[in-house]
């Protein structure tokens, strides 16, 4: 059996796709590893103006792809900060620390794809519960191996977040 025969074609309609939300973003769940034969996981995130997306982290098994559908996304890759604009694409290989947020003063609409896929929808659901105060951050930390999401310290990202706070209050 070749790779294209390992799963059935998948169509996810925007009108019926599952979403999970927190106060600053909505994630539309498109395709998880269970429906793609493990090939990929994909979701779309829309971030409110200046919303913080994810702290510095890395994946040991998956590459993460970002495609900016609209707005601007500030990203950390390794120790470098950059802003992705509409139409920009970024591929982050396994083992590379990265973080992201809507660029200061901007909204962002981003398509995320992980390959190979993992059952990340449960992670996104948990993340939504944590952001809404319905679960603890300790649950996220305890799930690092299961969801291949490993948090790291990043002074560069911490400075960028602190700068957001200073400019927002000005």
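Sequence proposed for the structure above (170 residues):
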């Amino acid at each position: 059996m070749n790779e294209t025969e390992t799963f059935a074609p998948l169509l996810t309609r925007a009108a019926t796709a599952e979403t999970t939300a927190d106060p600053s973003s909505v994630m539309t769940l498109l395709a998880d590893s269970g429906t793609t034969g493990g090939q990929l996981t994909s979701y779309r995130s829309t971030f409110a103006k200046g919303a913080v997306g994810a702290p510095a982290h890395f994946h040991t098994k998956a590459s993460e792809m970002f495609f900016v559908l609209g707005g601007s996304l500030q990203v950390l890759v390794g120790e470098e900060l950059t802003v992705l604009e509409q139409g920009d694409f970024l591929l982050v290989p396994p083992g590379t620390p990265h973080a992201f947020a809507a660029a200061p003063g901007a909204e962002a609409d981003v398509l995320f794809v992980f390959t190979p896929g993992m059952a990340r929808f449960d992670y996104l659901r948990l993340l939504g519960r944590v952001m809404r105060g319905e679960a603890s951050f300790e649950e996220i930390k305890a799930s690092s191996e299961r969801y291949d999401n490993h948090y790291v310290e990043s002074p560069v990202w911490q400075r960028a977040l602190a700068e957001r706070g200073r400019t927002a209050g000005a």
